[in-house]
């Protein structure tokens, strides 16, 4: 019985420690969680965008859906963290990469997702460091 309580206590402590970085990113207060949450959402949408543009399943409509999602989340993030220069820089990089991808899709090309992935990584880093 005591071993079970220790295991439960250890699991609760571990969950708290793992959740701490999610609460302490960005610029302060409630916005911290929102910055990290939006960064993760943008990252997931960027991955899905890459899948929609993939060689096997080139799907311009699906790609546009994820472009729209990313742009909406970037808008939310810019309103929330407008004074954080590293977040602002990363969102600018993401917006430029998304624009390049949109242009490539419109031209019938297969744009490389690398610049978008790099920009998303910079956003994650900015949200965690802020």
UniProtKB/TrEMBL annotation:
Protein name in the entry: Secreted protein
Key words of the record: Signal
Give the signal sequence positions.
1-24
The organism sits in which domain of life? Bacteria
């Amino acid at each position: 019985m005591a071993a079970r309580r220790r295991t439960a206590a250890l699991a609760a402590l571990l969950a708290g420690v793992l959740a701490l970085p999610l609460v302490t990113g960005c610029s302060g207060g409630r916005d911290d969680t929102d910055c990290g949450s939006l960064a993760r959402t943008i990252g997931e949408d960027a991955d899905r965008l890459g899948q929609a543009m993939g060689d096997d399943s080139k799907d311009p409509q699906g790609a546009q859906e994820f472009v729209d999602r990313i742009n909406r989340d970037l808008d939310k993030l810019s309103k929330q963290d407008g004074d954080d220069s590293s977040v602002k820089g990363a969102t600018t990089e993401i917006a430029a990469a998304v624009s390049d991808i949109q242009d490539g899709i419109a031209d019938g090309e297969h744009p490389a997702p690398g610049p978008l992935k790099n920009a998303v990584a910079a956003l994650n880093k900015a949200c965690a460091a802020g």
